[in-house]
Design brief:
The protein is α/β, with parallel strands linked by helices. It is 40% helix and 17% strand. The longest helix is centred in the last third of the chain and has 26 residues.
Length: 383
């Protein structure tokens, strides 16, 4: 008999469903975690990578529940992980994504969106199969959230509020960005437009640094030409582990989970960390940064621009609607969380978690008896 440690894997909010999709004949191995749907249908990205696992997906699904609740969206949280190389042959990738879509078609309370390793084209394939996806190409009624950089736009709105709490001026600040993909690339652009100086960036193959500032326009052109930032001639190449030690005012993790951990947190030299990626800092590392006086804006507050855009698209809104809503919601939530954190002398994440959980619990209280939450949460949520 299969033994499941329910106490360790669940808490008062969820997850509601954990589903493994496996078909060796079609080379399909995937995980879907629907964390909570009390506020509405669960929106969450499809992450594709060779090493994605169910625990990572479970943590990301909870982040989506909190993100939607904190942003005041009528949606719950979910996430999916598809095992595979996102750089595989496009024909094979289309086949695998379509296979995934058909396999999860009955999970009607989950609305997929793009995430690391997938894009609007993948969402178009899913929508074609099951008529349910967000982050679609404009040609079929979507708002190309990765193309226009909605998550990064939210980070910039967050930075505008957080700057005074961190004791810095955004104009003239030095910024390091770990992960120069759809989030990091646009973050560099939006922050440079606000007067920030991008001094170092990295992608999966290496990084580049220039203490006098990188030319953002040239760097973006270089990246879009298919080159790694490591080969950009406008700065000094550096290995990925060196990025955490670059002296700066703002450090933005915008790629993999847990890039700041107990082993490297002591090297971080910044006053403000804006979490552009989901779960990019371990709990122990974040506590260490707080004790050093480094301001960390939690992921589900700082990077909610993507899911806010997805919610606007889901209800037929426009690109302008999305940008206006992102600016309004993220600015308001950042101010609320950081002001309370200062007043109560607690971590911003502690404040943000209570705010988001309270909203989810209230929604759950209107459900039928037996679906109402208890008072306590499990430790794995406090990431």
């Amino acid at each position: 008999m299969l033994h499941v440690d329910w106490k360790r894997l669940t808490d008062d909010l969820g997850p509601e469903k954990v589903v493994m999709l496996h078909n060796p004949l079609l080379e399909l191995k995937a995980f879907v975690v629907i964390d909570n749907t009390a506020r509405g249908p669960a929106i969450g990205g499809l992450r594709m990578s060779p090493g994605v696992g169910v625990n990572e997906v479970r943590r990301l699904a909870r982040a989506m529940t909190l993100k939607s609740a904190a942003a005041g969206l009528p949606h719950g949280g979910a996430k999916a992980g598809l095992v595979g190389d996102p750089m595989m042959n496009p024909v094979d990738k289309e086949r695998l994504v379509r296979t995934f879509a058909r396999a999860m078609s009955d999970l009607k309370d989950y609305v997929p969106g793009p995430d690391m390793g997938t894009d609007e084209t993948c969402m178009a394939y899913i929508h074609d199969e099951i008529e349910r996806a967000v982050g679609l190409p404009e040609a079929i009624g979507g708002i190309a959230l990765d193309k226009i950089g909605t998550t990064a736009y939210g980070l910039a709105a967050c930075a505008e509020v957080a700057q005074r709490y961190a004791g810095i001026d955004l104009a003239g600040s030095r910024v390091v960005i770990q992960g120069f993909g759809s989030v990091g690339l646009h973050a560099a652009r939006f922050l440079a437009e606000r007067g920030a100086m991008i001094v170092a960036v990295a992608d999966s193959r290496g990084g580049v640094a220039n203490p006098k500032g990188l030319d953002v326009d040239e760097l973006i052109q270089h990246k879009r030409a298919g080159q790694t930032v490591h080969s950009f001639s406008g700065g000094k190449p550096l290995a990925n582990p060196q990025l955490v030690g670059v002296d700066c005012d703002i450090w933005i993790p915008a790629a993999q989970p847990d890039v700041i951990d107990e082993a490297n947190v002591g090297q971080l030299r910044a006053k403000l960390v804006l979490c552009g990626a989901n779960i990019p800092i371990t709990s122990v590392a974040e506590i260490a940064l707080h004790e050093r006086g480094v301001l960390v804006v939690p992921d589900f507050i700082a990077n909610a621009g993507g899911v806010i855009c997805a919610a606007v698209e889901y209800r037929g809104g426009t690109e302008d609607d999305a940008f206006d809503t992102i600016k309004d919601k993220i600015s308001h939530n950042t101010e609320e969380v950081l002001s309370q954190a200062v007043q109560t002398k607690t971590r911003p994440r502690t404040v943000a978690l209570e705010l988001a959980r309270a909203r989810v619990r209230e929604a759950m209280s209107y459900r039928r008896h037996g679906l109402r939450p208890s008072k306590q949460g499990a430790e794995w949520l406090d990431m």
